[in-house]
Amino acid sequence: MLPLIAITQGDPAGIGPELCLKTAVDPRVLEACRPVIIGDRIVLEQCAEKLGLPMPGVVLGVNDDWSLLDRLEGAALIDCDAFGGAVEPGRPTAEAGMVSYRYLLLAIDAAMSGLIDAITTAPITKATLHMAGIDEPGHTEILAKRTGAENYAMMLYSETIAVSLVTIHQSIASVSQSLSVPAIARVIDLAGLTLKKIRGRAPKLAVVGLNPHAGEGGLFGDEEESVIRPAIEQARAAGWNVEGPLVPDAAFTASALGRYDGHVVMYHDQGLIPFKMLSFAEGVNITMGLPIVRTSPDHGTAYDIAWSGKADTSSMVAAIRLAAKMSSEG
Fold first, then answer.
1. C-alpha–C-alpha distance, residues 227 and 10, integer Å
2. DSSP string for 21-59
3. Is the dihedral angle over the CA atoms 99, 101, 105, 108 positive or is it negative?
């Protein structure tokens, strides 16, 4: 049987409902998995009516017998019955933050208990989580806390480029102080394990320096010699094929992309700028190091086009297909 992939609806006022409805009937998705949307029937019905999209043929309540999904052939919806009424597309609210949080927790618990095989999450926002009184800033932190994962990191993946981040959502001024040999070596290891799982072979990895010219021998900073190079040596001793520290402005040339299966970068924009320039449409966000498989599209809620019929499903389809592949490979 094809794997069961839970697709969380995300923020009701964003493009999540549209993405869920479109991908649930996409032939590329249905050939890879059995999609199970976790969201609100009332929200999806409003979106479906506005955009002329079909609803899933099977609808279960949260407390119904989920073993019925074992016989699922098309798409299904788990109706959380959590949202209170009419959605105003494009308007962030505390209620949207709370229900998107509830969808995610239910999906995590279902994956941890083996009811579904993997999770793909539609976009949420830090702003609405904060409005709802939720301390975690986003999906990654919620997933880590709920699953008890302590060794986790973010990878942005496509067939063209894969970047893994040592630091994520923090100021540029704080990045240098956050870098350490164990932190960098940990992300190299997670990147290696994740890419090996996806590609079926040991990957060749590149580690990107922090400073211009990778420090130029200490002229522009010493992080390359004090923490990055020792982490690379530690990773090599652990058996990984890894090179660096690479000069950042040459790390993502066509020839470099052809040489390496993935890059480990020191901070958010160092990796995400080249990634989104090259693979925005089909990019996938992977949370590495969890006891479950979780992917997501590499974009946000796109309030400006919410419920307009304009949402591009390419990244969501890629995320679902990758989750199916990773869950099938154990």
1. 38
2. HHHTT-HHHHTT-EEEEEE-HHHHHHHHHHHT-PPPSEE
3. positive
- 273-310, pLDDT tens digit by residue? 999 999 988 899 999 999 999 999 988 999 999 999 99
Show me where the domains of the chain are located: 4-149+290-328, 153-276
Whether 153-276 and 4-149+290-328 are alike in CATH topology: the answer is yes
Topology of domain 4-149+290-328, CATH? Isopropylmalate Dehydrogenase (3.40.718)
Q: What is the CA radius of gyration of the chain?
A: 20
pLDDT (tens digit per residue) in 94-104: 999 999 999 99
Q: How far apart are CA 124 and CA 127, in angstroms?
A: 9
- Report pTM: 0.93
Interacting residues of 138 by C-beta distance below 8 A, sequence separation 6+: 124, 126, 129, 169
- One-letter amino acid at 157 equals Y
What CATH homologous superfamily does 153-276 map to? Isopropylmalate Dehydrogenase (3.40.718.10)
